[in-house]
UniProtKB/TrEMBL annotation:
This is Branched-chain-amino-acid aminotransferase. Keywords: Amino-acid biosynthesis, Aminotransferase, Branched-chain amino acid biosynthesis, Pyridoxal phosphate, Transferase. Belongs to the class-IV pyridoxal-phosphate-dependent aminotransferase family. GO terms for biological process: isoleucine biosynthetic process; L-leucine biosynthetic process; L-valine biosynthetic process. It is an enzyme of class 2 (transferase). The lineage of its organism: Bacteria, Pseudomonadati, Pseudomonadota, Alphaproteobacteria, Rhodobacterales. The keyword Amino-acid biosynthesis applies. The gene is ilvE. InterPro entries: Aminotrans_IV, Aminotrans_IV_CS, Aminotransferase-like, B_amino_transI, BCAT-like_C, BCAT-like_N, Class-IV_PLP-Dep_Aminotrnsfr. PROSITE patterns: AA_TRANSFER_CLASS_4.
Amino acid sequence: YDDRDGWIWMDGEYIPWREAKVHILTHAMHYGSSVFEGERAYGGKIFESRRHSERLAESARLLGFKLPYDIDAIEAVKLEVMKRNDLSDAYIRPLAWRGSEMMGVSAQGSTIHLAIAAWSWGAYYGDAKMKGARLDIAEWKRPSPETIPCRAKASGLYMICTLSKHAAEAKGYSDALMMDWRGYVAEATGANIFFVKEGKVHTPLPDCFLNGITRQSVIAMMRERQIEVVERHIEPAELEGFEQCWLTGTAAEVTPVAEIGPYRFEVGQMAKDMVSAYDAMVRAA
Ligand code: PMP
């Protein structure tokens, strides 16, 4: 993704896309000390922009550092980055990380950096919005909150996701459903999951993974429509009895799921309704 035209904002300056680099002894690269966001803009307006900036600051706090810019400044930069790159429908990627002044596990004295990039990014799961995505069941588990600050959108946590996604792709799937450390259904590698059974919606309780902003928006939207949504622990054995399934995430938006390992789901009316209702909501916001 480095060889293209455009501008990336880094620590207060606009850098040509190909020159936006960091030193090889950057702490974040060796020890995973970075946090990031993924946001989408529709018609020039970033959906839930402020909540994303606040989550970035909270992720940094959970990793023990403070962002070098406040929320208002970050809000302004995100819009400016889109403008500089002539984007109105865009994916926005803020990233904050510990710099290269110290080597070793400790980085107490290192500078905290912040960069913001933006580009246009189409459908995350390709044509799955119509046909439904095919998911493998991952062997790697979401860790316990006692193992890692799992509410942070921290780069280190994505090691588990990349391992799971690569294993799924090697078998021809587009993603993987991960269980948590107790064995309950958790989430996909970059999106939350919902199921439908007998008119009711069921979704895992986000007690050890990201409570996605899209997830929260979709739950609110369903409750406004008097659809019953139950947040609870879901056993893998229950997958057999669910009729419909979809994923939610900033990049994924709402994407129906047709398959999880041996289980099959209908790309049904409720899933289709959620796809279009979400599209309408982000464009109306
Ligand atoms: N879980 C993971 C692991 C993710 O990477 C994402 C995408 N940020 C989500 C869930 C969904 O979060 P959001 O709806 O805030 O994009």
